[in-house]
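A reminder from the course coordinator: this example appears on the midterm review sheet, so study it carefully.

Given structure:
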């Protein structure tokens, strides 16, 4: 598996047992369905006994009249079997579909709770395959496989009892059926589960490839890398093919061995029964009944191979599901959240803030101290890779500081409930993500009711109103997946509108104007100036024009703030600042 730690090996039973909390929700319908299936199997097993009576009646010279009640019984039993099969399916279908939905909803809700650090580590395709195909595997097993594992095992035991009742020496046939079955099952379990797991992980990897190439289609085409990507996909899909073939090979051996069992049993029954009939210990009818019983047990025994395969597949689907569900959210809610002092002023303090990314060895931030007064705008400036974006993620707690603290109005952000924190702090990222939804829905992402007037105000501030009105359905226009049908500047402005909607107390803007042309940038800046006037803002800035919006500028170097002042003060006093601004400006002139 390419994205996550190696899974802890568990037995199939232990993996299946983890589904317990969900299975308990459907235990009644499962029990009814199993009962109906058992009834149907039991009804089927009555047929050999009826056959015995029919044959014995004919061999004893009984007339047609004697056969009528037996034939009527066979008909009733047959109809009962069909009816019970219908009941079995009807009883279980809805509850297991509900169970699949509940598990899927719980997974999605958990994914929403998990921190950015988790999503940085996991490939989208791996999560997708867990949320879709693994849960379908689990549902199918619970609706069918699990029930038949129990029912078929009981049917085989019941058949064994019928054989012994017909004539005790047939017990040898029963033992000859059951013992190898148990042996083969245990031999098969470990090997198949490993391959089933590999195949599910490879499906996840393939889903990731498709996802990445769809999202990155422009880059792939622009660089003419289509054939390269196709070859890589073909190689990975060939690996999955090999795994599937290995699965089939393992299954084929098990299947062949299992299918051979009832065939051998039929021969053994004929041999033992033939001797019994020859020696006068057994009626011909009992022999026919014994053979019919063994033939009837053929399906329950043959299906065991398939059922075992499904059980192993489901066990590893369960492992994969719980690997995500077990992932702990490192951004935890405080047990007793503190309220913000009212009215909220929006004072932001960073006190000796340290930060190291999970799995990284070097810290990115090494003791940041910065006070931003209510309503003040501070621009954060630094060379590329200096940690500006990282610093902005600490305010809304996308990551938690690894040392020091971030405070809002004097309260550590870790002591606030995240919903309260994020209701007061709005963020716009450099790379704006838009969802497959209307413009209105994209802007009004945050919680709570939003009025049309608020949406319009936010769109006007971010200079979106004009182009949005030109869209076919205005604010109700559905913008394409990830907003790709809009220009980069339009997307960035929509992300800005989302951040300023509802006038939050604190705005964190990560280079919000980087994709705008000079003319639009000037217009947005004018509008932003009005918005920023009363709002505490931390703005990552590369361009001098964005820096000019700020009351003060903080220079980030080597994980520390090395200079703070107005733009002109820093230009006059800090050579490092002049260097950063010059390099950003020259970068701009190149683009
Ligand atoms: N999710 C992550 N996991 C590990 N390291 C990361 C992660 N994100 C960023 N980094 C590292 O942290 C450092 C700071 O990155 P950051 O994006 O904060 O810089 P930046 O100043 O915003 O850069 P730019 O101006 O180019 O956007 C870089 O060395 C980067 O490689």
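Designed residues:
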């Amino acid at each position: 598996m390419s994205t996550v730690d190696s899974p802890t090996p568990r037995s199939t039973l232990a993996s299946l047992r983890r589904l317990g909390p969900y299975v308990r929700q459907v235990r009644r319908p499962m029990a009814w369905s199993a009962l109906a299936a058992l009834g149907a199997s039991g009804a089927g097993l009555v047929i050999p006994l009826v056959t015995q009576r029919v044959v014995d009646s004919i061999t004893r010279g009984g007339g047609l009249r004697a056969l009528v009640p037996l034939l009527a019984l066979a008909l009733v039993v047959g109809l009962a079997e069909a009816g019970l099969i219908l009941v079995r399916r009807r009883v279980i279908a809805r509850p297991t579909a509900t169970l699949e939905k509940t598990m899927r909803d719980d997974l999605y809700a958990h994914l929403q709770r998990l921190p950015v650090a988790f999503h940085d580590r996991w490939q989208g395709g791996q999560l997708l395959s867990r949320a879709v195909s693994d849960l379908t595997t689990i549902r199918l097993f619970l609706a069918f496989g699990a029930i038949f594992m129990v029912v078929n095992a009981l049917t085989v035991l019941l058949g064994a009892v019928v054989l012994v009742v017909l004539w005790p020496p047939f017990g040898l046939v029963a033992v000859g059926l059951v013992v190898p079955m148990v042996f083969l099952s245990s031999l098969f379990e470990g090997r198949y589960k490993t391959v089933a797991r590999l195949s599910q992980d490879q499906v996840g990897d393939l889903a990731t490839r498709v996802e990445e190439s769809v999202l990155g289609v422009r880059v792939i085409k622009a660089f003419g890398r289509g054939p390269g990507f196709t070859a890589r996909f073909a190689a990975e899909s060939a690996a999955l093919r090999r795994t599937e073939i290995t699965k089939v090979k393992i299954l084929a051996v098990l299947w062949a061995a299992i299918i051979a069992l009832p065939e051998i049993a039929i021969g053994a029954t004929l041999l033992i029964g033939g001797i019994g009939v020859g020696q006068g210990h057994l009626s011909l009818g009992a022999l026919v009944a014994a053979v019919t019983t063994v033939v009837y047990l053929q399906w329950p025994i043959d299906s065991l191979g398939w059922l075992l395969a499904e059980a192993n597949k489901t066990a590893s689907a369960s492992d994969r599901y719980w690997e995500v569900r077990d992932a702990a959210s490192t951004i935890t809610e405080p047990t007793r959240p503190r309220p913000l002092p009212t009215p909220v002023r929006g004072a932001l303090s960073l006190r000796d803030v340290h930060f190291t990314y999970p799995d990284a060895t070097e810290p990115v931030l090494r003791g940041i101290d910065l006070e931003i007064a209510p309503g003040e705008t501070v621009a954060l400036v630094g060379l590329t890779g200096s940690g500006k974006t990282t610093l902005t993620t600490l305010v809304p707690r996308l990551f938690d500081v690894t040392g020091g603290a971030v405070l809002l109005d004097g309260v550590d952000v870790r002591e606030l409930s995240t919903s309260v924190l994020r209701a007061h702090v709005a963020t716009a990222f450099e790379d704006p993500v838009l969802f497959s939804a209307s413009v209105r829905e994209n802007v009004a992402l945050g919680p709570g009711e939003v009025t049309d007037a608020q949406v319009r105000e936010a769109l006007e501030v971010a200079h979106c109103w004009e182009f949005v009105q030109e869209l076919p359905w205005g604010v109700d226009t559905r913008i394409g997946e990830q907003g790709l049908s809009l220009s980069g500047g339009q997307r960035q402005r929509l992300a800005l509108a989302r951040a300023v909607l509802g006038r939050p107390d604190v705005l964190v803007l990560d280079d919000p104007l980087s994709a705008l042309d000079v003319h639009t940038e000037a217009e947005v800046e004018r509008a932003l100036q009005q918005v920023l006037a009363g709002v505490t803002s931390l703005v990552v800035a590369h361009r001098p024009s964005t820096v000019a919006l700020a009351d003060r500028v903080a220079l980030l170097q080597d994980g520390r703030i090395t200079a703070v002042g107005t733009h002109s003060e820093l230009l006059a006093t800090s050579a490092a600042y002049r260097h950063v601004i010059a390099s950003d400006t020259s970068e701009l002139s190149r683009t």
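The longest strand covers residues 348-355. Residues 226-278 form the longest helix (53 residues).
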